[in-house]
Design goal:
It is built from 2 helices and no strands. By secondary structure, it is mainly α. Helix 1 crosses helix 2.
Length: 74
């Protein structure tokens, strides 16, 4: 019979992904989202005849900030 009270097996802890990998994915997603953000920003400005609050870079940055962590938690 095995006694697990004194020699408990070590649990594997989840390590955080390397920052370089995160930044690489972030950059790819940001560059992919940028043309779409420019397009939606331009269409929004044309429809409302005013400049939107967030510019296209801020929109793409926000999308990259939302999408990239989902990749690492999946």
């Amino acid at each position: 019979m095995t006694d697990f009270t004194s020699n408990t097996p070590l649990e594997r802890t989840r390590r955080a992904p390397p920052k370089r990998e995160y930044y690489a994915y972030f950059a790819i997603i940001f560059l992919a989202a940028l043309p779409l953000a420019i397009l939606t920003w331009g269409l929004s400005a044309a429809r409302q005849f005013t400049m939107p609050e967030k510019g296209p870079i801020a929109r793409a940055w926000t999308q990259a900030r939302i999408i990239t962590p989902h990749i690492f938690t999946a």
